């Protein structure tokens, strides 16, 4: 019965997002720029033989309890084949600081998580030795505020690194992912031309053709990015123009209608 309601809700969500994307508002999110794949008109959820049922995960820390109570889903409870490495739960990020503490599981809105499973399955049909690797999903706004506050630079520079928490990011809703592709046999990420969180034009999907022509990016690097976009489109995600790794599940206005911002709890932040 629970899966039936999720399925019904997802159909309503996809219809709403498709309607909104036909006439996107100006000054919201950059539109998708890669047209090498046609979006499906309907979304068919994975069947129970391919996806594990929703189940109560093992709590690694209080973050898990808090986020489950907010109605979010740990992606690996419905597809354990998706790799997860939250970069802000390590020091391997642009801040060189672990700001997530014991938050090491990737949480998303339930319908967004189900759509990501479709993308993983699409990738497996193309090359079974590859897997999606999540760098980030839900980011509580309290953590985003902390990241914003410790960046000592003008606001117009800060926004290159972190969205202004006053406005809210789609990460704060659990409706966006930072993601790449990994080779399961070697553990090596596919070469996308830049590292995750690279600040600069080289990370821009919108400049790939000119950078390929100027030998700034190789054909293999561009092909890897196209593959990532292709499989994410299977779940109706769309990319933005300035970060090859960032994909949104819907526009900001639609996220405000469907979800609420996950604020976070100061007692759970390891700073």
What does this structure look like?
The protein has helices at residues 2-22, 62-69, 110-126, 141-150, 155-158, 170-173, 208-213, 219-234, 252-258; strands at 73-74, 83-84, 107-108, 130-136, 176-183, 238-239, 246-248. With 271 residues, the protein is α+β, with helices and mostly antiparallel strands. The protein has a single domain (2-23, 33-268), classed as Muramoyl-pentapeptide Carboxypeptidase, domain 2, CATH 3.30.1380. Strands 2-4-5-7-6 form a 5-stranded mixed sheet. Strands 1-3 form a two-stranded antiparallel ribbon. Helix 3 crosses helix 8 (219-234). It starts with a helix and ends in a 13-residue tail after the last helix.
**Overall 3D form:** globular
**CATH domain class name:** Alpha Beta
Q: Give the CA-CA distance, first to last residue.
A: 41 Å
User: What percent of residues adopt helix (DSSP H or I)?
Assistant: 25-40%
- How would a crystallographer describe the biggest sheet? 5 strands, mixed
Count of helical stretches? 9
- Count of beta strands: 7
Radius of gyration equals 18 Å
Number of structural units classed as domains: 1
Average pLDDT value? 81
Strand order of the largest sheet: 2-4-5-7-6
Strand content: 5-15%
The CATH topology is given as Muramoyl-pentapeptide Carboxypeptidase, domain 2
Oligomer: single chain
